Structure prediction request, 93 residues.
Amino acid sequence: MKAIWNNQVIAESNETKMIENNHYFPPEAIKEEFFKPSETHTTCPWKGEASYYTLKVDGIENTDAAWFYPETSDLAKQIKGYVAFWKGVEVVE
Prediction:
């Protein structure tokens, strides 16, 4: 699977995990040069507290377009640290 935004592959892995129709990429699959930590946090009732990244490609930012769970509930431990996308990021095979 590839995550693409602004014509750039920002993550790539054959080991994504699918949860609630989102592909979660292992942390080593992201291209860190395109990711900036965000101060945003949200809470999922069954996964835990999510943290976000803002993407920056070719000088253009996509605020909070990626999220991950640094710590998870027992139910979501398989995606701890894995990164998922939204806000126009295309995930394709």
Q: What stands out?
A: The two ends are 4 Å apart (CA to CA). The beta strands are 2-5, 8-12, 17-19, 22-24, 35-44, 48-57, 60-68, 83-85, 90-92. DSSP finds no helices and nine strands in the chain. The mean pLDDT is 97.
